[in-house]
Every structure is written in C-alpha cells, then in structure tokens.
Amino acid sequence: MGLMRLMLFALAAMAAYLLFKRLASPFRPSVEADQGDDRLGRLVQDPNCGVYVDSKEAVRRKAPDGELFFCSKECADTFFEKARHGA
Ligand SMILES: [Zn+2]
Fold it and tell me: Does residue 35 belong to any structural domain of this protein?
C-alpha cells in the first residue's frame, strides 16, 4: 500500500498548501474577479450591434436597468429608438 499512502500524503500536502495560500493573502482579489473599476477598462457589449468595446472608449447611456455601453453614438441612438418603438 506504499503508493496509496504516497498519494494520500500528496493530496494532504496540496490541500495544506492551498489553504496556506488562501490564508496568506485573504484580501488579494483573484484574477477572474469582475473588474468593477472602470478606470481599468473592461470589455462591454454593445447591445445594438453586438460588438465588444472597451468601457473607457464606449459611448455610455443611462438605462432604467443600469448603464449601457455602445460602440458609437449612432448605435446608442438606434438602440433607444428601437426600444421606444417596441421593436
Ligand atoms: Zn454598435
């Protein structure tokens, strides 16, 4: 049963290592975390044409359910025009 014990030991060591890493840096945000800071810029989708744009470069419009980002002023106008006509 030498191999089994070795595997169990490796698992325990890995768990301890992960736990230690987590305890060592409790406040460091993970890379996958949502980047809520707009200064950093993030990829947002234009709801009108579906193109992805950087939030820093995007045309912003206030909407009832939040802020929307568009690739251009024309797209924003078109989107709200369509919404107004219920299409
Ligand atoms: Zn667009």
Answer: no
Alpha carbons 70 and 77: distance in angstroms, whole number: 9
**Considering the domain boundaries, does residue 78 fall inside one?**
yes
Residue pLDDT, tens place only, 23-77 = 876 565 555 555 555 456 899 999 999 999 999 999 999 988 899 999 999 999 9
Which range marks the domain in which residue 48 is found? 2-25+40-84
Give the distance (Å) from ligand 1 centre to CA of residue 73. 8
Cα 86 to ligand 1 centroid, rounded to whole Å: 19
| 34 domain-assigned | no
Contact 48, 76 (CB under 8 A): yes
